Amino acid sequence: MAFNEKVLAYEAFLNEKLRHDLKIVMDQRDSVYEEVAEYMILKQTIEKLKRSNFQEANVGENMKTQMDIGCSFYVQAVIPDPKRICVKIGYGFFAEFTLDEALPFIDKKVEFMNQKVENLTHQVCSIKAKIKIVLENFFTCVLPHDSKFKNMAYGWRIKTPSGLEDQHVEHY
């Protein structure tokens, strides 16, 4: 394989595969973080409802509230039975719970999603390590062995001709 072909292969693998994979995994992790935040807000809302004793004080009454329908647009809503709520359990399914039943479910769901975040974080670290290896190999191919810039691939500081130190900038 010719020198230029090797450089192009490293560049294509880095840009088309690794950086693309990194973006996908980071987007997945961000969506799981958002879902965790929604469950935590739900948990806080349930706890506030329980503390306010709304259930016992207003038996048979409707509860009025505002509901976000997207992009921070709110509409008036009426909850006919505030003693029971529907909670998203996954894959587009919802289950009806009492407020007391919902709290342990939310705790287990958040714990499960935190494990998922941890796995996705390990994947992000693995992909970043692969990117670093590809960059090191790329710099090994491109720069001569006596080059003062070669150390940039390893994240070290280098001396410029003027004697000042340049700080390493992340490559990914």
Write the layout of secondary structure elements.
Elements: H1 3-52, H2 54-57, E1 63-68, E2 74-79, E3 84-90, E4 93-98, H3 99-142, E5 158-159, E6 165-166
Antiparallel strand pairs: 1-2, 3-4, 5-6
Helix pairs in contact: 1-3
Question: What brief labels describe this structure?
Answer:
alpha+beta, two-stranded antiparallel sheet, disordered C terminus, 172 residues
Our measurement of the CA-to-CA distance between the termini, rounded to an integer number of angstroms, reads 26 Å
What amount of the residues lies in strands? Answer: 15-25%
Radius of gyration: 26 Å
Strand order within the widest beta sheet:
1-2
The gross shape turns out to be elongated
Major sheet size, sense and barrel closure: 2 strands, antiparallel
User: Spans of 5+ residues with little confidence (pLDDT < 50)?
Assistant: 156-172
Total beta strand runs: 6
Tell me, rounded to a whole number, the average pLDDT.
80
What order do the SSEs take from the amino end to the carboxyl end, as H and E? HHEEEEHEE
**Proportion of residues in helical segments:** 55-70%
- Protein structure class: alpha+beta
> Number of helical segments?
3
Overview in brief:
This protein has 172 residues and is α+β, with helices and mostly antiparallel strands. 57% of the residues lie in helices and 17% in strands.
Structural description of this entry:
Helices cover 57% and strands 17% of the residues. With 172 residues, the chain is of the alpha+beta class. Helix 1 (3-52) runs antiparallel to helix 3. The chain is built from three helices and six strands; from the N terminus they run ααββββαββ. Strands 1-2 form a two-stranded antiparallel sheet. Strands 3-4 form a two-stranded antiparallel ribbon. A hairpin with a 5-residue loop joins strand 1 and strand 2. It starts with a helix and ends in a 6-residue tail after the last strand. Heterohexamer of two PFD-alpha type and four PFD-beta type subunits. It holds the Pfam family Prefoldin. GO terms for molecular function: transcription corepressor activity. This is Protein UXT. InterPro entries: Prefoldin, Prefoldin_subunit_alpha.
